[in-house]
Amino acid sequence: MSTDLTEHTLDSRQVYDGVLLKVHKDTVRLPDGGEAVREYIRHPGAVVIIALLPDGRMVFERQFRYGPRRVFLEFPAGKIDAGEPIEQTAIRELREETGHEAGYWEHLGTMHPCIGYSDERIEIFLARDLRHVGASLDEGEFLEVTALSLDAAMAAVWRGELTDAKTLAALIWAQRVINQGF
Description:
single chain, 182 residues, alpha+beta, Nucleoside Triphosphate Pyrophosphohydrolase, three-stranded antiparallel beta sheet
């Protein structure tokens, strides 16, 4: 068997075109020469923001998510608009959702939350030197802004109260930033 694990697209069809998501159904050539069908979601990508307050706490949101039908504790985040630079998305989302602007921004990394069925990527940002200027939520968006220390956030993880994947991944970066002064 080949050491090349790449699957090559033989045919690709979009089978659903939604407001946010597009679903594709592809036929691929497998590394061993066989064929398979792959169904996956195309997603425009998103950002997640670790926003550090002067006292060291991090800005969080509580927001109802329709798919799992419950309120989640999560870092501020949002979808990348077509043609929008990722840094601008982060600045926009932090301001709209939490009412904060940051004097310092840093792109920390990228995560892929659903590699088995989606091309979605989430860009992780650090925001410091925050000042509150007032939120301006999108129409139909409802959330509660709160702040937690790293210890309180990790305790919420271990109690099973914080289960959002992007926030869990970003907390790894937050630990490094807070504990090592990254």
